[in-house]
Amino acid sequence: MSKLAKDAAAFKSTLKRQDYTSWHSQPPPLDAQPPAQPSPKKKRPKSNIVYSQPADTGTGVHVNTQLVYAVNHLKSTPNPMRLQDLAILTNTPLDTDHVLLEKFKSHDRVLWDPKTDLYSYKHEFNFRNKASLLTEIQRRTRKGGGIAVRDLKEAWKEAPAAIEELEQDGEVLVIRTAKDGQLKMVFWNEIKGDEESGGKLVEQVYVGATSLGEPEVSPCTFPLRFDRREAVATSGLQTKT
Fold first, then answer.
1. Strand pairing partners for 110?
2. 98 and 81 fall within a common domain
3. Per the database record, which ranges form the TFIIE beta domain (predicted)?
């Protein structure tokens, strides 16, 4: 056997011993398994627990903050109060802090009665009935202006209802908001539409006129036809032809 034939036989023998399970070959398929389904998300159970909220301790620790809080509370109270009760309700050291007490007493909106030792809020207006309310409205209107209804309500919570009654009686004039018709400003009605003052409401005059039927037409005192030549001749003048 020639050398070439031996080499060919050796090459074939090598090919038979070669392992073809290389990276090109595909691995045997594994047993097919379905993809795992995600577990359903557990819902958090509803809790009926009501957690406690912090108390309204808006008094703060600064003297001026406590002063404002105490004055505002006194403003919302229609009746005079004892200092001890005000200190408890506002959680302020009014009865123990001398600096705070002096500031409170010297406030321009705080009234202190030394006889009863009671404190009250000094509103801009001081009235508690409809007659006094009308007097206050008249006084302000004479000065050239009206009064905001919210300011009157702060002094007397029944003021809006009393103003509406005065409006129906023709004693005051009011301005209402365009959106919901709430009372905004009030003025004294200086010119009232009654017979004593020589006037009537427009509606009453209109109703009286229409109830009598059509008025009679008075005869015309002017000539319906004007003749210029006749007028000139009557006056003694001559016309040029």
1. 121
2. yes
3. 51-128
Assigned domain for 240 exists: no
Cα separation of 146 and 184, whole Å?
A: 10
What is the number of domains present in the chain?
A: 2
In tens, the pLDDT along 126-169 reads: 777 888 889 889 988 888 888 889 888 888 888 899 999 999 99
Report how far residue 25's alpha carbon sits from residue 27's, in angstroms, rounded to the nearest whole number: 6
Query: Tokens 């009372």, residue?
Result: 183
pLDDT tens-digit series, residues 97-128:
999 999 999 998 899 999 999 999 887 777 77
Q: Of 73, 113, 112, 108, whose CA–CA distance to 90 is shortest? A: 73
The encoded tokens of residue 175 equal: 């301005």
Domain contains 224: no
Nearest-Å Rg of the Cα atoms of the chain is 50
Pair 105, 65: CB distance under 8 Å: no
Using the Cα atoms of residue 68, residue 102, residue 155 and residue 89 in order, give the sign of their dihedral.
positive
The owner of tokens 């001749």 is 233
- Domain CATH code at residue 152: 1.10.10
CB atoms closer than 10 angstroms to residue 66: 23
Residue 104 CA to residue 111 CA, distance in Å, equals 10
Q: Cβ neighbours of residue 89 under 8 Å, at least 6 residues apart?
A: 73
pTM of the entire structure? 0.45
In this structure, the number of other CB atoms found within 10 A of the CB of residue 154 comes to 16
**187, 193 contact by CB (below 8 A):** no
Full residue range of the structural domain in which residue 84 is found: 63-121
